[in-house]
Specification:
globular, 362 residues, 7 strands, binds iron/sulfur cluster, seven-stranded mixed β-sheet, Nucleoside Triphosphate Pyrophosphohydrolase, alpha+beta, Endonuclease III, domain 1
Length: 362
């Protein structure tokens, strides 16, 4: 063990939160926690996790669950299809007579992707693999001065090199915990950090800013950022997500914008919006078409559609922010969205004397 590893593990031993899934090696319980954590913050998952396990204490119980019981137990935890895939994984495990222990074997289970397979391999079977979530990637990029736009495979390879192989459970938990508590997207509390003397980003505001969300920065733009119509798409669909009199916008390279995505056909609009919002941690309760318009383009005009969307629970994250209507309309809007801004201004004219929508400088 080198000095940096020792410092981090000592810090973790003292500061780790007592999250309920950290005390188990049961692959079923770890899989349940990982699927829940894909859409919801750890503090909110803890209680729901224990309630879910009270209903479905093991893989056999979940494998036998009918849709109604499953959806009831999952309510408020994001897409029900995730719970169904969790059940499908349990059925596959029972059919195979037990859990696979390798990353490859785990990834062959229904609904288990590369990240979850690694988490299961490390936390349930103590395999020496690095688990790279957004928190771990941020910490790694900052400590080692890595470019946060590196492809995920390269960040994964750097995480494998940093891994303390003798105790992958403690190590992976410690790196993620440092990213959740000290080296966060909102602030790097370097004075409290066990790696403050080993870090290449400490005191470098520019590096701290560009490393807030490394894995998201490496994602395709349509997943997190200002949407652009993919080649031949011809349509952009926007979500006006509302909750408690406020609207959701996300941080893109050129400022705060509504969540949006490029699609090819009108019939793709609702499913694409639902998938986009699910990636942000939101499950669609209702989506109503609000406004459509055409943007002149070099080829055929680009069609824009906006849906007024309500979610089961408002998502949260460093790249998301809720705005009152007047605040939203005071932002610089991309010229292509001014017809929507004007529609929104008319919609809210009674509750505030809103100025004409502001256009972004371009
Ligand atoms: S010293 Fe600061 S930037 Fe570096 S890992 Fe620690 S909290 Fe993050």
């Amino acid at each position: 063990m080198d000095e940096a590893q020792a410092l981090l593990l000592a810090w973790y031993a003292e500061h780790a939160r007592p999250l309920p899934w950290r005390g188990t090696r049961d692959p079923y319980r770890i899989l349940v926690s990982e699927v829940m954590l894909q859409q919801t913050q750890a503090a909110r998952v803890a209680d729901r996790y224990l309630r879910f396990l009270a209903v479905f204490p093991d893989a056999a119980a979940l494998a036998e669950a009918d849709d109604e019981r499953l959806h009831r137990a999952w309510k408020g935890l994001g897409y029900p299809s995730r719970a169904e895939r969790l059940r499908a994984a349990c059925r596959a495990v029972l059919a195979a007579g037990g859990w696979p222990t390798s990353v490859e074997g785990l990834q062959a289970l229904p609904g288990v992707g590369p990240y979850t397979a690694r988490a299961l391999a490390a936390f349930a079977f103590a395999q020496p693999v690095a688990v790279l979530d957004t928190n771990a990637a941020r910490v790694l990029c900052r400590r080692d001065g890595l470019d946060p736009r590196l492809p995920r495979a390269q960040l994964q390879e750097r995480a494998e090199r940093a891994l303390y192989r003798a105790d992958p459970i403690a190590w992976n938990n410690a790196v993620m915990e440092l990213g959740a508590l000290v080296c966060t997207a909102q602030a790097a509390r370097c004075a409290l950090c066990p790696w403050r003397l080993h870090c290449r980003s400490r005191g470098d505001d520019r590096r701290l800013a560009i490393t807030r969300s490394p894995l998201r920065a490496a994602s395709p733009r349509h997943e997190y950022g200002a949407p652009r119509a993919p080649r031949g798409a011809g349509r952009l669909v926007w979500a006006l997500v509302h909750d408690g009199g406020r609207y959701l916008a996300w941080s893109a390279a050129d400022g705060w914008v509504l969540p949006g995505i490029g699609v090819r056909r009108a019939s793709d609009e609702r499913p694409a919006l639902a998938a986009l919002l699910a990636a942000l941690g939101g499950e669609v309760l209702a989506a109503r078409f609000l406004h459509g318009w055409y943007e002149p383009a070099a080829g055929p005009p680009l069609r824009h559609s906006c849906y007024r969307v309500r979610l089961f629970a408002p998502p949260a994250g460093s790249a998301l922010r809720w705005w009152r209507p007047a605040e939203l309309l005071a932002l610089p809007w991309p010229p292509a969205l001014l017809p929507l801004a004007e529609r929104l201004r008319r919609y809210h004219r009674r509750e505030a004397r809103l100025p004409p929508p502001a256009a972004a400088l371009s």
